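#struct-help
A.M.: can someone run this one for me? Single chain, 348 residues.
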Amino acid sequence: MTSITDVARLAGVSVATASRVVSEADYAVSAPTRARVLEAAEALDYVPNALARGLLKRHLPVVGVIVHDITDPYFAEVVRGVEDGAHGLGYLVVTCSSERDPQREASYVRLLRSMRAAAVIFAGSGLDDPNLNAELSRHAAAMRAGGAAIVHLSPHAHGEPEIGVDNAAGIAAMVGALAGLGHRRLAFLAGPASLYVARDRLAGYRRGLAEHGLEEDERLVVEGGFDAEAGAAGVDALLGRRAPFTAIAAANDLLALGALRRLAERGIRVPDDVSVAGFDDIAAAATTAPSLSTVRLPLRELGRRGFEHADRALAGERSAPVILPTEVVLRGSTAAPAPNPLPIGGPA
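D.P.: on it. Structure tokens below:
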């Protein structure tokens, strides 16, 4: 491989000068000299050693993004936002899919710490696992002490995210929108209780019911996974509980999409017999039949702002937490209840 010594020799400068030019160090070099070094580097196809540069700068230009499920469109859009911010500044974005496995998540963070990554961005919610959270706290403290940045985009064991959205308010707003259509019996697919974000969204559902004077019936709340299969299973659970409802709100869009599929399989029409709403506004939400009503989150912006927060932290700046806005989007999956609605989930 071409070395910096080869570049210096071709450019007719010292190795130190060539190194300063290619590493973009804050050091005065004349324009003609800089041009000769860059021309030599291009002619020799010289690529700086990122590991060596990282050793000199205390950390590597690597940003690790911890996601729960790399196939989930929610996380794909957030990571796109991180890459938007990182690309022009020379950072490599590494996506680590934990599958909500505490040991796997901890191993990724240990590895990122050991390789002296510049930043770790937790795109997914914290898990309610005491051992994991104690270990993550140790790693985060050590990385920050070494000049690295730690950013959360969702609630976690130690509090609210540095960059996030108001999950409870977003769900409460969707409940309000359904109430505005005339729904009085609203079921909720709540997601996994082990996730702090799922707890916030469940709290938002209950807050929305209270704000609009609606009855809370625990039979209408189903906890489970955060994917389409869990949404389908949630519909089965609701129909087996014999508690009537005219609308289903879900803690994320994948749950809602799974619910749409199962309702169709069981011959229940949406929105004629029951309305369905999600949360996130992933790309697929607008393309289903019927299209999915949901709460729009600025997912790509969330990722971009998360990286910007990390970049400021790396520069030694302190930034206040930021809560990004949400927006209720009503589409074809929601409508007013029929004048004499079928008692979905309950006795005739």
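A.M.: thanks! The chain has a mean pLDDT of 91.
D.P.: also worth noting: The first strand starts at residue 60 and ends at 67.
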